[in-house]
Amino acid sequence: MTPRVLVASRISRSAVELLKSRGFEVVEVNEPPEEELANLIKGFHAIIVRSKPRVTRRVIEAADVLRVIARAGVGLDNIDVEAAEKKGIKVVNAPESVTQAVAELAVGLMLAVARKIAFSDRKMRSGEWVKHEAVGLELKGKTLGIVGFGRIGKAVARICYHGFGMKVVYTDQRCDQEAEREFNAECVDLETLLRRADIVSLHVPLTLETKHMINEDRLRLMKKTAILINTSRGAVVDTNALIKALREGWIAGAGLDVYEEEPLPKDSPLLELENVVLTPHIGASSVEAQEQAGLEVAQKIIELLK
Q1: 80 near 57, Cβ under 8 Å?
Q2: Which of 99, 129, 153, 255 is exposed most, by the fewest CB atoms within 10 A?
Q3: Is 233 marked active-site?
């Protein structure tokens, strides 16, 4: 029987061609809703998704020959891993593929907020010359607090330490002495990090423990001049608390690529705030990252099914 792969999100053409060249039948659809996906999944041995669509318990239970669920990216929060494991379905992803892309976006958001780049661009386009209102901060010598010191967290530290001369403090489940030597980094608890950091960058998965990790109490610990960057998952931050913090000046600004509700609702108060920079979940959306992510999961599917 020819193994069949359902590509349910857009991935690189080279990954699709790789699967086809190895004798796989590939069917491509673009982020179908749950009901449609549950009907489509029958007869497929593997499925590839990105951050969407969600591979729910309903979809998994509807599958009859499914053996692999592949996420062309890092997180697995749009996949019911428990339901997959119960059916003996392997869940794989591409953890290394998007590291540099997400890290570079995080640093880009830092610069955009600290130097008021997006604010200045908006004003210029509306005919305003805001030279005096757009005085920003340099990153050099500032303290960077990294919450989650995995691949992406370390990549951000590498850029900021070597490129800007920033001081690095971090919090993670375990301290990393090798990384501490490379970046002269200090391992601290979350509350200490929030109090000390000029810029806080979030790089944790979404779990029961990390949901609303950054809440009102913790936002109040941060410096009034501090900037919050989130390129991890939207629900790691309590959105209502963040809006309050930005409006009332508990912190200076934020750079966000992820949101509790995506797409971001058109009536979101975040859209009205001048001290926040917003991007539409594009951390992994570089040509290079998507190429690598697609090829990485395609190769894993080939190895598991062949």
Answers
A1: yes
A2: 129
A3: yes
